[in-house]
Automatic annotation (TrEMBL):
This is Acyltransferase 3 domain-containing protein. It comes from Chironomus riparius. The chain crosses the membrane at residues 55-75, 82-102, 141-157, 169-193, 213-232, 244-265, 277-300. The keyword Transmembrane helix applies. Keywords: Membrane, Transmembrane, Transmembrane helix. Residues 31-298 form the Acyltransferase domain. Pfam families: Acyl_transf_3. GO terms for molecular function: acyltransferase activity, transferring groups other than amino-acyl groups. PANTHER family: ACYLTRANSFERASE 3 DOMAIN-CONTAINING PROTEIN-RELATED, O-ACYLTRANSFERASE. InterPro entries: Acyl_transf_3_dom (IPR002656), O2_lipid_transport_reg (IPR052728). The keyword Transmembrane applies.
Amino acid sequence: MVLLHATWLHRFDDGPYWDKFTVYERQSCRKNMWTNLLLINNYVGGDMKCMIHTWYLATDFQLGIIGTALLLMCMKYPKKRNFILFGSIIVSFIIAVIHFYVHQLEPILMLPPENLRNQLMGNPEYDRYFYDFHAPTHLNTGNYLIGLVIGYFYYQYKQSNGRTDNRSAFLNVLWHCSYLLTFILCFIGFYFYEYDIKLGIWSALLGALLKHIYGPIIGILFVGIFNRYGWLIPKMFNYGMYRILARLSFSVYMVHLTMGCLIIMKNKFPIESNNSMLLSSTVIVYTLSHIAALFLVVCLELPAHAIFKTIVNEILDKPRGAEKPPTPNIINFKIDYTSTKL
């Protein structure tokens, strides 16, 4: 996808919107595609980011390294497990507060229409704002570690009890309240869009809190689903169709920006933004992204996975040391020149 954006994408169409987006994207990818390949594009790359949505891949990769290191420390020092895990979350929260305060960021990511337009049209000022607020690994570490802690202790609980159907009344109430809190958080942005708030230490604390609150909510939701709270939601999450969608999800994420640009940026007249236009564009982009993702999975991801799996299995099945061939019996001949005996 990076090579496509750096070479042929701008040749697929033309027009004022298309040229403005694809020229900037081509220049960014040709200059900074190496940051995408090294998975450091959430920090490195300056104002010209190639495929802006791939910040998540770099952040997730870096969080995986951090999480693995913490789990290894917990295995090496089991008595200090709680100190390591919860101490890391506290440090992450403090770092987030400092980041919000130093960069003078709003508690939530502000996405008015002009900012979204500037993001696609290559506005360096908005790129800096987005990468200061959303992309840094140190701002996403808290939620990741909270999810890691919940998963770790749930695994320990499952191993020790051998069952996952412990229907605690407190957890049941907390699970249902988490749904209400999820909807509240979805609409909390209305206040910040409507009123201007003074940026300072209190807004930094609120921003750090909002950055860390989604992890425990989602963790509680999943623990409740594992314990089969509710009658419909566990069935929905166990629906077999989700396995196919999960297989396509990574490829959908990789191509959805390209599909969106093909649908929206090809227009050669002013774009009128309204609810029907947004809904129809969303449905079209969603459908085309899954079609393209299916092609990528069948033609690229599955064959590459099969080849990689075959190579790994051959390496694992190969004996560690080749057996030495048996030493041949050597017959020493001694010649007695004074007689005819051999």
